[in-house]
Amino acid sequence: MQDSSTTTPETLVTADGVPLKQKLIQSTRRARLRALLLTLPLVIFIIVSFMIPIGQMLFRSLHNDTASSVVPNFAIAIQDWDEQGLPPEETIKLFVLDLQEARKKREIGKTVGNLATRINYEIPGSRSLFTSSARKLARVTEGPYTEALLDINKKWDDPVLWRSLKRATNDITPYFYLSALDLKYDDEGNIIEADELYQIYVSNFVKTVRLSATITLICLVLAFPVSYLLSTLPLKTSNLLMILVLLPFWTSLLVRTTAWIAILQTEGIINDILVFIGLVGEDGRVQMIYNQTGTIIAMVHILLPFMILPLFSVMKTIPPSYMRAASSMGAKTFTAFRRVYFPLTLPGIAAGTLLVFILAIGYYITPALVGGEDGLLISNLIAYHIQKSLNWSLGAALGTLLLAIVLILYWLYNKIVGIEKLSFG
Known about the structure:
Elements: H1 20-62, H2 66-70, H3 72-77, H4 89-104, H5 108-122, H6 127-136, H7 145-152, H8 159-168, H9 175-180, E1 183-185, E2 191-193, H10 201-232, H11 235-246, H12 253-264, H13 269-276, H14 292-315, H15 321-328, H16 333-344, H17 346-361, H18 365-370, H19 378-387, H20 392-416
Antiparallel strand pairs: 1-2
Helix pairs in contact: 1-20, 5-6, 10-11, 10-14, 10-17, 12-14, 14-17, 15-16, 19-20
């Protein structure tokens, strides 16, 4: 008989004769496979709805093949040009032949037009030059092609135009990031600041961060006493008040924003009350809509529940006996609040401020409706380039920079506050 003291997992077997160690490995493998299958839908959802779109945005912000797809042979040849004077005759010949090929395919409105739009980003007013020249070049059957181009339009004698074409035919380009940072290429190809008239993006990034921080601070100031009240009232009363807090979630965002337009306009309810009580005259009505004021008021109202809920969930777990114990030891009410109660609410404050700030920095609908020109955020400019100007590469570059700003602020937040201190209850 085998001594039980020398029995090992390898010698133990199950009822069906399978070694115990092998059976444990099989059971562990089945458990892992079951867990994988359970989480697979979530993983697929994250990949399809989050990771792939972000990857496409990063790719689109750097990759733009508009020019090279229209003039593929010219795009290769122009890279050998030293950017002095005009390109060689053979290179210009390829440019003309590529445009003629596009003309034969009757794609001027689709491809040559897109090429013209791409160059127009760098040289405003050059779009008509490309489309009209492409039509007239259909009659050119032999060289010299440089002379034929110059006969069509003398603007082709400008080396700056050809340098811009050379940059545009590079599929991988930093141009759209430069534009998003209010920079541009000068006539010699050096990176300089854009003209003051076109410096709109950096200031809008700053305004977006500033307004988001302001909205977050106002939400915190308003939500803290409300959350404290909800956490200290009897359960029946606090549940009733919580329904009022959650009520905006049951109303359409568009309806809530439109209601603020009716309330804040110069002939709206608030201005009528101010005139009625005599604080302002009929001709001194306050402009509270289509500016930053309207954006802040409407977004505070929409985002306030996202601050109240984390604060309430944390405050509800703080025993009232802590404050009574501090008072019994001689601490005044404010001192007890500052030294005992407030530090315990920091996880809720951290969660609420992070949640509200990230939501505010990417908000789109409310600023578009109530912000006017002064209250628009960077998300509205991104939507403009994606939906109207169709400059998807610039929109993607702006979106990537906004993502980078959020990640940097998140990193700083983690360094200062500590993400491990977040608590949603």
